[in-house]
Amino acid sequence: MFSLRTAALAAGLSTSPLGSLSAQIDYRNLDDDRPVVTEDAYPVERYAFELLAPYRFEDEGGGIQHHIFVPEVEYGLARNTQVGVKVAFAGADEGTGTDWGLAGLRLFALYNFNTETRWLPALSLRTDATFPVGSLAGEGSRVAIKAIATRSWGRMRIHINAARGFGSEDALSVAEPLNRWSTSLAVDRTLFRQSILLIGEVAISQAFQDAATAVNASLGGRWQWTPTIVLDAGVTRRLRSDTGPDIALTLGLSHAFALRGLMPAGPR
Fold first, then answer.
1. Which of 12, 21, 61, 174 could form a disulfide linkage to 256, CB 3.0–4.6 angstroms apart?
2. pTM
């Protein structure tokens, strides 16, 4: 997978005058919350950018609803390494009208220290830091460390994520808060002729100490609309009656590209 993605990047840079990325299999890249919380162990290619523009609707029941927008940019800083930033916007409706505002700033980095081999899965480590920027961002900063594993069997892959969060346990952000701990298992299957990836997931998490444990199930898909644009959609349903969204819907797109001016000069 990694070699194919690298080849796609090289092809895009050599054929496009704008240096856009011909990421013909970018639909296979599972980003966190795009469209399920589980992500795969592979970063974006070195020197490549990826812009993500998602929307998520959550109905918690009892008249509580959230509209969440978290635009994101990722950059392949070095071989097997990506960094990124998210800026969250949200609308929170507690039954008396919708309050809109910023819902936090997140910085993150991911390092893939083992590409999948015959004996070992692909393995990555990710770190995130969130900051209470905005009226809906909560009241404290948090950091988290996540371990990610991906294993392939033909057109199918299995992904396991496990994360531990640290820091303030005051009011958390309305949009994608860093949980005290979380773990998830996802399985996907590729439909190569249609450039579609189908994903199923079960995720378990605890938002803060002594909070109820959330157990959610999700189904989603990713479709390569153009060589550089991927559409994703998903639906989430809680499996416990006391916590998690009664129903959540996700819709988004991502655009992968590279800037020729940021590429290192090759041999002449």
1. 21
2. 0.88
